Amino acid sequence: MTKILIYEDNSQLREVLSILINSDPKYLVQAAYGHCANAIEDIRKHVPDLVLMDIDMPFINGISGLKLLRDSGFKGKIIMLTVFDDNVNVLEAIKAGANGYILKKTPPAKILEYIEDALNGGAPMTSSIATQVLHMLADGKATRTSSFNLSAREKEVLDLLVDGYSYKMIADKLYISMDTVRSHIKKIYEKLQVNSKSEAVVKALRN
Q1: Which of 75, 115, 104, 101 is nearest to 13 (CA)?
Q2: How many angstroms from the chain centroid is the CA of residue 88?
Q3: What's the sign of the alpha-carbon dihedral 134, 138, 141, 145?
Q4: From start to end of 45-107, where are the E strands?
Q5: Taking the CA atoms of the chain, what radius of gyration do you get in angstroms?
Q6: Are 203 and 193 in contact (CB under 8 A)?
Q7: d(Cα 67, Cα 55) in Å, to the nearest integer?
Q8: Is 89 exposed, middle or buried (0-12, 13-18, 19+ CB in 10 A)?
Q9: What does the alpha-carbon distance between residue 153 and residue 55 come to, in Å, rounded to a whole number?
């Protein structure tokens, strides 16, 4: 059974999240706290597999709590669950080691899907957040793709993906076949050691 810890200052939402997650027999909410000022002690006590972390909390905010946990050596998954969808918070959370970033307005069933995704190595993001991250990556794509030993053509393909091009549009833009596009994307994922575009974005931003 997967052990989960929740940090959320809204008591009603804490209860709803606990009930929702405990409704799935695969998960167990060990505890739900209204702040993360004692996060390191909490983690040592409960040893969870995954943490759901709000951002706007008393004493210290969730991003500071996230940094505390990562600095303490916590290797479990941490998903930010928040109302904030601004670039600063998104980027800071990803750079600090968040495994996912989802909004509180996310439908309950989708939250369970996102938890499963993170546990399986994914990087779940609410669609509006993923769009922002793609735009942020596009703004600095040249420097962020250079450290992964990508070929010039692979960088072109990745940059077009970031800009929202479909496989067919990339093929047309670069005058190559769809099979060649797929081959380049496969190599990009291998070099970045990821399995999806969202994971590639997160990896690029962290580096």
Answers
A1: 104
A2: 15
A3: positive
A4: 50-53, 77-82, 100-103
A5: 18
A6: yes
A7: 12
A8: buried
A9: 39
140: tokens are: 């600095």
Give the Cα separation of 161 and 64 in Å (integer): 32
The answer to whether the pTM exceeds 0.85 is: no
Q: What is the pLDDT of residues 11-49, one digit of tens each?
A: 888 898 999 999 999 999 999 999 999 999 999 999 999
Would you give the DSSP letter of residue 125?
Answer: B
- pLDDT band at 89; cut points 50, 70, 90: confident
Query: Is 106 within 8 Å of 82 (Cβ atoms)?
Result: no
Residue type, 175: Y
pLDDT over 70, % of the chain: 80
Joined together, the tokens standing for residue 138 give 């596009």
